[in-house]
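Dig into my protein:

:::
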Amino acid sequence: MSRATGSIVPFIALIGFTSIIGQVVLLRELMVVFYGNELSVAAMLAAWLLWVATGSSLFPRLVGASLLVKKRGAGDFFTS
């Protein structure tokens, strides 16, 4: 692992941890607003997954094929 890659790993982990906490807080607050109704929970999760799928499908088109030529997995990032 190079020095530059090793120094950025804790920051990426911190960003991931912070985003998970933010998502949990947001879903809990929305459950309070909608009184914890099962239909509202299903609508929140469906909208969440819809936007994640939209972003995943649009990402390759927006950044272009030149950035996606290197096919590396998450394990390669932490081990190389």
